[in-house]
Structures are given as C-alpha cells and as structure tokens.
Amino acid sequence: MVLLLLGNTPKRGPYHRLVAKAVKWLRKRMGETLAALAVTLVERVESGGALPSRAEVTDLLTCGPEGDLLKEVIDLPGRVI
Q1: Which of 1, 38, 49, 58 could bridge 44 with an S-S bond, Cβ 3.0-4.6 Å?
Q2: What is the model's pLDDT at position 33?
Q3: Alpha-carbon distances, residue 6 vs 27, 28, 29, 46, 77 (angstroms)
Q4: What confidence score (pLDDT) does residue 80 get?
C-alpha cells in the first residue's frame, strides 16, 4: 500500500518490480483476509480506480512495521485519503 500511495504499481513507477513481487506473494495468500484486501486494492488502482481511503486500509495499519510505515505515508502533509 505504501508504494501505491507513492505512485507505484506492478506496471509503473520506479518500484514496479518490487510491487509486482509483493502482489505475487500476496496472491499466494489470498485465503488470508489482509492479503486479499491488499490485492483487491492494488488491482483497483491498477485498473484506474481510486487510491484506497484511510478507512479501507485501517486493518492494514496494525501489521507491524509495515503498518507503521503505512501510517507515516498516510499522514504526510498534503496527503488526502
């Protein structure tokens, strides 16, 4: 989610390969609720949809260091989600 919010997807952006690897890893875990949520949000953004809202990523904010980083990116000045 952090990379998405910073303008990267599996198809574009300087970190597109990293995002692609992450999505591949998440797809192998689609039975897990948070993995399924993350994949759904990535696919929506890739297809031209809106970035996730804060309400949509709330559950992801509790995921250890990754959740902490997501909080930091969401709270960047000027970021509205």
Answers
A1: 49
A2: 94
A3: 21, 24, 24, 13, 13
A4: 55
Identify the pLDDT of residue 78: 67
Query: What digits encode the pLDDT tens for the residues 30-65?
Result: 999 999 999 999 899 888 898 888 899 999 999 899
How many residues belong to the chain?
A: 81
User: Shortest CA distance to 79 belongs to which of 47, 48, 71, 14?
Assistant: 71
If you search the block for the tokens 């948070």, which residue do you land on? 34
